[in-house]
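Dear colleague,

As promised, here are the two records you asked about, laid out in our usual form so they can be pasted straight into your sheet.

NAME FIELD: protein one
SEQUENCE, THEN STRUCTURE:
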Amino acid sequence: MTMRPRRFNRLILEALAEIPEPFRAHLANVDVVVKRRPGPSDFRASDSKRGDRLYGLYDGVPLSERTGSAGFEMPDKITLFREPLERDFPDESDLVREVRTTVLHEIAHYFGLSEESLVELGLD
């Protein structure tokens, strides 16, 4: 399934809108972007191998690891990879669900949750 970019972006916005306000307020300095597919540097940054499925990537310093003395910092970034999501979830309802799961998964990394914690929460 190939979805129009505007519709795909709307799925991301809908997933972000579901985040409760106390948490959403912390996302003001987080950019969410869409790339067509992951490149070699994305796989390296995620500790994934080239054959692995990579739907999203968090790039930044998790809130749980920050110190209070930080100065100007670049925004954290969450990237969603459109082609792998569309390829692996050709049914629109499955794609909607997986985009939501991927957004929540990457935001959870921003808040400092580990992969093991995400598995326990069903966000793997």
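NAME FIELD: protein two
SEQUENCE, THEN STRUCTURE:
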Amino acid sequence: LLDLSKLLRDAGRNRLPVLKADGSAVYIIHLSTITDYVAQCAAVSTSGAKAVADLTIDDIKKGAPKLFASIQDFSFVQKTASVADAKAVLESNSGCADVFVTENGRAEEPVLGWITNVEIQLRSQA
């Protein structure tokens, strides 16, 4: 997690899409999720607990199910969708902040593009 955090900070980014070998989406890791999990671990640290430098995504999966669910909380639209379509998908999924574009809008397809809630907001203002 610290390596991911450093990668994001060095790149000036707040989120990182993670894709499978076939190009389909598996996670969207927000820097805030890493920070929240590390802070939770530090707050309840006990002897024998894993060092912060050794924490992994699997540790989030095992120890913080809500945070783990958040890195799997994204939506899909097909490649012909408009920004308005992507906005509607985000609005229908309250915890979602990211939309992946695939050929037909299906999760098992390779990702062709990605749009965030921030980009949608910027392009949706009158």
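A couple of things worth noting about protein two: Strands lie at 15-19, 25-30, 75-78, 98-102, 113-116. The helical segments are 2-11, 31-43, 57-63, 65-71, 83-92, 117-124.

Best,
R.
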